[in-house]
């Protein structure tokens, strides 16, 4: 073969090699900017946590503070992982001895998606110390001086939740006989990461009755750690020296940190001539649009603005002026939250939903339904139901749980479609429920660095990710 033919053949082979397809590409060939763009489009924090467990590079991308801030701004707060259901020991239209509120059993966590969320990681057993030998049953409620935890304390009760945090009361057994007669101690905890902080009651106001306790957002940015970015609002009653059956509400706010502590706000009522009934005739009615409402079995409501910590009275128009009793009245927000305020009220066997027009402030009926007719086809219905007034067991922005007065038979009404059903988990127990979300931002500590000694040591010793601990990866 001549030299010219060999050159021509080599050129043909080189040309053929240049036309061969390149090797297979994968997501690992994406630059960091495009990889972050792909991860930002994951719609669920659960998917994001699983992506972070794939490899070190993906975990480094997700663990970046800028990435997590952009993810929350794009998708909003993480979804609710489940709810803690608290069961009352008495029917909804009954009270304890001497008019006390019904005692509650320990809360049970029910995941919103059992196939994804492991309910075991939301247990509150880390708050309790096991009994030791020699403990007497009647001493089980006492404080354990050797530990910050309390042995099998049944005086603890969930009173509020916000994001991934829970707010619980913590009182000795002699004060838990009637929890509204004393200002209790509190515990703020994050079940998934098993962290908690005890909060002692205000020393100067420990003798005042408790009207309600609530979790508020912290004063910092929403991207901070939840256990260091919260506030506790405690609302107390100060009895009048001259008229025993009337009181003045007081608001106290606790802020964590070295510069934190209790701040007592002595804001009086807007009208000095207005008197608030005693605590025995008041009840928590709901929260909406950053305000807290209490019914007083009159045509007016006690309102606390969470931003200004000032109290005021709200009077309804004539068509809504019915007694604001605990069993027949609730204040809720809109389906998407925001500044919408709605009122759920029972008038006989009719359930009515009122909303306030944003422009004029006028209250109008949004929806109504006859409970007797709507529940006739539900399992367990009896013909003699609703001869007595029905009772509201619990209510949120999307649904309300009710029962007839003749018997505890729970069913719920969807406030958007006004459809009734009694198969949902919320219809199993008498009592409130408290939503709980996964921690945000997730604590991604392992395998973040590029394989250096620090990263390897952290991989061996660091605890499981707070986000990954709440899901089954």
TrEMBL record:
Domain named F-box protein AT5G49610-like beta-propeller: residues: 275-443
Superkingdom in the source lineage: Eukaryota
Chain intervals with Basic residues compositional bias: 1-18
Xref: SUPFAM superfamilies: F-box domain (SSF81383)
Region described as Disordered: spans on this chain: 1-26, 454-473
Limits of the F-box domain: 28-62
PANTHER family from the UniProt entry: F-BOX DOMAIN CONTAINING PROTEIN-RELATED (PTHR33207)
Protein name according to UniProt: Uncharacterized protein
Organism of origin: Zea mays (Maize)
Gene name as annotated: LOC100382776
């Amino acid at each position: 073969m001549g030299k010219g033919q060999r050159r021509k053949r080599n050129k043909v082979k080189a040309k053929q090699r240049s036309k061969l397809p390149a090797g297979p590409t994968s997501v690992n060939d994406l630059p960091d900017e495009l990889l972050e763009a792909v991860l930002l489009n994951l719609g669920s924090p659960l998917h994001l946590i699983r992506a972070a467990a794939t490899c070190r590079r993906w975990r480094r991308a997700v663990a970046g503070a800028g990435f997590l801030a952009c993810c929350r701004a794009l998708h909003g707060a993480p979804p609710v992982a489940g709810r803690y259901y608290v069961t009352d020991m008495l029917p909804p239209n009954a009270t304890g001895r001497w008019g006390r509120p019904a005692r509650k059993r320990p809360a049970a966590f029910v995941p919103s998606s059992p196939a994804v969320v492991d309910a075991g990681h939301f247990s509150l057993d880390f708050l309790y110390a096991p009994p030791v030998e020699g403990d007497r049953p009647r001493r089980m409620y006492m404080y354990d001086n050797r530990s910050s935890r309390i042995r099998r304390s049944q005086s603890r009760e969930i009173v509020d939740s916000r994001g991934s945090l829970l707010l619980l009361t913590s009182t000795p057994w002699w004060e838990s006989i009637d929890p509204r007669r004393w200002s209790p101690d509190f515990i703020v905890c994050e079940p998934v990461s098993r962290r908690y902080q005890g909060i002692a009651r205000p020393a100067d106001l420990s003798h005042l009755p408790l009207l309600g306790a609530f979790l508020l957002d912290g004063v910092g940015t929403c991207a901070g750690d939840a256990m260091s970015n919260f506030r506790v609002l405690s609302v107390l009653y100060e009895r009048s020296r001259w008229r025993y059956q009337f009181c003045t509400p007081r608001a106290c706010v606790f802020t964590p940190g070295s510069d934190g502590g209790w701040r007592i706000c002595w804001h009086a009522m807007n009208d000095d001539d207005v008197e608030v009934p005693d605590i025995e005739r008041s009840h928590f009615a709901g929260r909406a649009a950053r305000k807290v409402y209490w019914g007083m079995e009159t045509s007016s409501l006690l309102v606390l603005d969470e931003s200004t910590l000032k109290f005021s009275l709200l009077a309804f128009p004539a068509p809504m002026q019915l007694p604001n009793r605990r069993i027949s009245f609730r204040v809720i927000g809109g389906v998407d939250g925001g500044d919408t305020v709605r009122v759920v009220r029972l008038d006989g066997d009719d359930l009515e939903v009122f909303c306030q027009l944003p422009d004029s402030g006028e209250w109008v009926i949004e929806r109504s339904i006859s409970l007797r007719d709507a529940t006739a086809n539900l399992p367990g219905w009896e013909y003699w139901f609703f001869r007595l007034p029905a009772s509201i067991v619990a209510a949120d922005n999307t649904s309300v749980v009710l029962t007839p007065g003749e018997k505890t038979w729970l069913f719920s009404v969807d406030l958007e479609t006004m459809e009734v059903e009694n198969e949902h988990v919320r219809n199993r127990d008498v009592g409130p429920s408290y939503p709980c979300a996964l921690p945000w931002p997730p604590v991604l500590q392992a395998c973040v660095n590029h394989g250096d000694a620090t990263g390897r040591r952290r991989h061996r010793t660091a605890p499981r990710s707070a986000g990954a601990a709440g899901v089954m990866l």
